[in-house]
Write a structure and sequence with these properties.
0% strand, mainly alpha, globular
Length: 85
């Protein structure tokens, strides 16, 4: 459980550092949240790339799959902003 959790916990390091910088007054909270969301989307795509890289798909299909995943992640963020904004 620790090994699995460690991988998941590594994805929140950048968002937490950004929020800590905002708490110290180095950034605005809005900028820190945007950086955190961007870092989470990038980490999602990188983790998906680790899974896709050994498949028998062609490179264009792999890129398309990762692009669709990134677009869906951005869509989820946009829907959450609409729902809470």
């Amino acid at each position: 459980m620790t090994a699995t959790s460690r991988g998941a916990l590594l994805t929140i390091v950048v968002p937490l550092l950004a929020l800590a910088a905002a708490a110290r007054g180095w950034w605005e909270v809005t900028a820190a949240l945007r950086v955190g969301v961007g870092a989470l989307i990038v980490s999602l795509v990188l983790i998906a790339w680790l899974g896709v890289r050994r498949t028998k798909l062609t490179w264009p299909a792999r890129i398309l799959a990762l692009g669709v995943l990134a677009a869906l992640a951005v869509g989820v963020v946009a829907l959450k902003i609409l729902a809470h904004g």
